[in-house]
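mind reviewing this fold:
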Amino acid sequence: MIVKLNDKAYEVEENTSLAAFIENLGLKPQGMAIAIDHKVVPRSKWAETILSDSLELMLIHAVSGG
């Protein structure tokens, strides 16, 4: 199945959790937020959030500075 992350398509296996998807991409979850179809998913729900075909994910990184 295909999901989009920040408008880039990725092929993922059935029953892949959001947490596993992020881990498989080699991303560190610290300082990031993820929205699925414009709704932010709390990090505590990443492991139980199962991805499905055609989902649109948006990854947002927090940056510090001034």
Observations:
- The first strand starts at residue 2 and ends at 5.
- Residues 18-24 form the longest helix (7 residues).
